[in-house]
Amino acid sequence: MPDSPDRTPDDSGTAGDHEVTGVTGHGCANASGCYCPGRARQTTSDLDTLLATPGFAGTVLDTPVTELAGTLPLLDRVVGVTVAGPVIMNDVGTHCAPVEMGGPLKFDDTHISLRINPRRLGKILVTEPAAHVPPTLRLFDTDGNTAHATYLTEQSDRLAFEALSLAVPAREDDAGSRDEQMPEPSSASVPDDDQIALFDAMLDDCGTQRLARLTRPDTTAAPRAVRVDSDQVIAALEHASLLGMRVTLCAVATGCLQVRHAVLDGCREHNGTMVIASGTARVMINFNLVEECWISWSQGACGPTGAIELYDRHGRCSFVATQTGPVAPITSEAWDQLISDLAA
């Protein structure tokens, strides 16, 4: 995979580094590696950094995110990358049309699948080749940090990529009317026992409200969940790989989920860093930066279905592993047994 100039979140440091007595101007002492919300508002974003790079060649598009998303399949074979704190997912293939928040769960092993929340996404940037980085399309969140990057390959449709810069921007009155028709999404407006609600809670605020409910099991709004140790999660994922289970893997970035539903081909962990292989996709998880691991249950196509949720030290979900859609009964039973043993 080509090198990317995008910064990756670093949750290093101790809890004391993020106290109000810090030195960063927003109350955090970890000036070089903090990605807490206050820093996102005070420091230079990924987008600003790229635009300020000497010799940078790129264009910020005026195309609305929802319209741009529909053109992603036209790029043909690409590399799709999502950086979500301690988790990175990359896949090689063709995009399917991204599904917006509230839509059906449509994931498979033949496409790069994205689920997006346009309210949490901002600018779109197309860049020309630079050094070892090929032509790239980047989606940024509203803070200007990278939510998803699409790298062109030799099998990509370069004409379709060039055409992105020629799209007619939306008129201001049209953009205003769309914003009025699009209600502000809220993870609190849907039941927590549904799989669509599980994924949309991540799209709403990276799961921070959901985690607050998980940690307060005495409330009526709290979903059924159990907190487990990261070593148990590592062992469970390795076991699922050995069995060749079909699993849905999801990397959670702000306003964008990259999801793959496929058989696990391999899984290896060393010194807290895990790599999961599934066909053309790879998921890298730095468990040293994972603060909490939760097992939850939500209503899926095969009934109550367990999910593994990983949260960083800022309370944001970075990764979800579960099963979605109809699967063979033996596969569903094997996953249920694995989750039950993990939560025991």
Can you walk through the features of this model?
The protein has 344 residues and is α+β, with helices and mostly antiparallel strands. The protein has two domains: 48-173, HemS/ChuS/ChuX like domains (Heme iron utilization protein-like fold, 3-Layer(aba) Sandwich); 189-343, HemS/ChuS/ChuX like domains (Heme iron utilization protein-like fold, 3-Layer(aba) Sandwich), CATH 3.40.1570. Helices cover 23% and strands 34% of the residues. The protein is built from nine helices and 17 strands. The chain has helices at 37-42, 46-51, 65-69, 158-164, 172-181, 195-205, 208-214, 230-242, 329-343, and strands at residues 58-61, 76-84, 87-95, 99-100, 111-116, 121-127, 136-141, 146-156, 225-228, 246-253, 256-263, 266-270, 273-278, 281-286, 290-300, 303-312, 317-322. It has a 17-stranded mixed sheet that branches. α8 (230-242) runs antiparallel to α9 (329-343). The longest helix has 15 residues, at 329-343. It is globular. Mean pLDDT is 83; it is low at 1-10, 12-33, 174-182 and 185-190.
Helix and strand layout, with pairings?
Elements: H1 37-42, H2 46-51, E1 58-61, H3 65-69, E2 76-84, E3 87-95, E4 99-100, E5 111-116, E6 121-127, E7 136-141, E8 146-156, H4 158-164, H5 172-181, H6 195-205, H7 208-214, E9 225-228, H8 230-242, E10 246-253, E11 256-263, E12 266-270, E13 273-278, E14 281-286, E15 290-300, E16 303-312, E17 317-322, H9 329-343
Parallel strand pairs: 3-5, 4-5
Antiparallel strand pairs: 1-6, 2-3, 2-8, 3-14, 5-11, 6-7, 7-8, 9-15, 10-11, 10-17, 12-13, 13-14, 15-16, 16-17
Helix pairs in contact: 8-9
Biased composition (Basic and acidic residues): 1-20, 171-181
Organism: Gordonia pseudamarae
Protein name: Heme transporter
